[in-house]
Design a protein that fits this description.
The complex is a heterodimer of chains A (342) and B (177). By secondary structure, chain A is of the alpha+beta class. Helix content of chain A is 31%, strand content 27%. Chain B is built from nine helices and no strands. Classes of the chains: A alpha+beta (342), B mainly alpha (177).
């Protein structure tokens, strides 16, 4: 055998060298990204104050019960896998009956916890949810390519390992799309919500309004308005307050709130500034642009004129330089979502 | 060859063990060691314009599932399997989009001749196209391909030899030395 082909030793083979030169442009060149802290991905599995020391035993017992159930259950419905529900404490209500051990949550059937009960939901190929007290949810759609839940009220912690875009949670005021992550989602009785992402990132959407929340950030949402502007978990209180007023307060006072936001924003608040580019116009957008550009100069292909004119492609390019991942993930999901037949 | 053959199974196993316990730097080093393999496996199967994002996707999946890997030394083969599955999943989810992107991508990155060679490689049987992509595009040596992917050196050698024969035939260069 040609030793140059095998290990690059011996007399260089001109034909193979020619092929190497032609193909070199396709070679991997992207530097290693900044990885989210793996430990944080497991953080919610390690909450000793909330998990019983007998949890491993319970898990084994649940696994045994689940195994028996799998053996005894008829084949899964053709629409897709069902969520395995396990009681953690109290008496969660699955459908109309109290859950004593484990059960299956089918499409349309509600799962509700009172102030004393908790449960977990699991699909091996998708991920796991912990359902906190005073929560109510149901499954809208379950298929091999999408799990679509509705969180009516309460709190869930989600740890999702399915491919990005496959796990979606609808709330009364926004829809959360998992893009490879762990997060906590809370919905108040009035429909207002808050999402806190601890790993990966989440897309939050309502109508034409979108927010992208990476690890270490939060985002509030309100009925009839949709998701607000995301902010870092360590954002200054002054910035948080001004953002809440800007997003959900009196529109006539937005200009003043924006001045406070821009004055308080740090470099690490670039996430917030980026979102404000699409939520402002005219002189306000110019001010946001100048602030963001001062912290993070726009990359090649992004111009001041384009951003001020509202060029969405340029905004996406700028996002990609923030270090939170590539916007194409979200765009692929949008494309699939809006054209499900493709 | 732009990079010498330097895989070290015991070092990689130690990195895997550290990464499993949350050492982000160790995971970053695994990325450095295995990114070319993952990139090559994906490039053999999906449009070039999609590969970089999918590489990151594969490593994120691996990070999440690392606790399920039973044998640290099997990391390479395990990661290769995730990459192949991710490519399969990509086509299952958006075949029409993929074809469009492929057509567009083929016009640009490597020029017409480079695109034609890559297209010819991607028409080869799966085993050959993957090994040839790792060798000719990613610049990995045969021993490195074996060490990274978990294939035996003998299998890699055969794949390279037969793959090159078939590639020559497809490119109409069967009579070249």
């Amino acid at each position: 055998m040609n030793e140059y082909l095998w290990d690059g030793s011996g007399q260089p083979d001109p034909e193979i060298q020619h092929l190497e030169n032609l193909l070199a442009t396709y070679r991997s060149r992207r530097p290693a990204p900044v990885w989210p802290e793996p430990a944080s991905a497991l953080a919610w599995f390690r909450l000793p104050s909330r998990w019983s020391p007998l949890a491993p035993v319970s898990a084994l017992a649940a696994l045994a019960v689940a195994s028996l159930m799998i053996i005894r259950q008829p084949a899964l419905p053709p629409s897709g896998p069902s969520w395995q529900v396990s009681r953690v404490k109290g008496s969660p209500i699955l459908g109309a009956a109290a859950l004593r051990g484990t059960g299956l949550l089918t499409v349309g059937e509600p799962l509700a916890t009172d102030s004393q009960s908790q449960a977990t939901l699991n699909i091996a190929s998708v991920g796991e949810l912990r359902v906190e007290p005073d929560t109510r949810l149901h499954v809208i759609q379950s298929s091999t390519t999408r799990q679509y839940l509705a969180l009516d009220r309460g709190t869930i912690h989600a740890m999702i390992w399915a491919a990005p875009g496959r796990f979606v949670v609808q709330t009364p005021s926004a829809t959360a799309v998992d893009l490879g992550c762990a997060y906590t989602l809370r919905v108040n009785p009035d429909g207002a919500g808050l999402i806190e992402v601890t790993f990966g990132w989440v897309g939050f959407r309502h109508g034409g309004r979108e927010s992208f929340i990476p690890e270490g950030a939060l985002c509030a949402t309100r009925p009839h308005i949709g998701p607000g502007t995301p902010y870092a978990e360590d954002a200054p209180p002054r910035l948080r307050d001004a953002l809440a007023a800007f997003d959900f307060g009196n529109p006539g006072l937005q200009a003043g709130q924006l001045r406070v936001i821009l004055a308080a924003a740090r470099r690490s608040d670039a996430l917030t500034l980026w979102h404000l580019l699409s939520r402002t116009g005219g002189a306000e957008r110019t001010a946001v642009y100048d602030r963001l550009a001062a912290y993070l100069p726009p990359p090649a292909g992004v111009t001041r004129e384009g951003i001020l004119a509202g060029d969405a492609r340029m905004r996406d390019l700028w996002w990609n330089s923030l270090g939170y991942g590539n916007m194409s993930w979200w765009r692929i999901w949008e494309r699939n979502w809006e054209n499900p037949g493709r | 060859m732009t990079q010498p053959f330097t895989p070290d199974p015991s070092r990689d196993a130690a990195l895997v063990a550290a990464a499993r316990h949350g050492d982000r730097q160790a995971f970053g080093l695994l990325y450095v060691n295995y990114a070319r393999m993952v990139h090559g496996i994906l490039l053999a199967r999906v449009p070039p314009g999609e590969v970089d994002d999918l590489v990151q996707d594969v490593f994120l999946q691996a990070m999440r599932r690392l606790s399920s890997l039973r044998e640290d030394a099997a990391f390479g083969g395990w990661l290769a399997m995730i990459a192949r599955n991710r490519a399969h999943d990509f086509h299952r989810r958006q075949p029409e989009t993929a074809k469009l992107d492929e057509d567009l991508a083929a016009r640009h990155p490597g020029g017409a001749e480079g695109a034609a060679v890559l297209a010819a490689i991607r028409e080869l049987p799966e085993t050959y196209r993957e090994t040839l992509t790792l060798r000719l595009v990613e610049g990995m040596t045969g021993p490195e391909i074996a060490a990274r992917t978990g294939l035996t050196p003998g299998s890699v050698r055969v794949n390279l030899h037969r793959g090159m024969e078939q590639l020559r035939a497809r490119l109409g260069k069967g009579n070249r030395p």
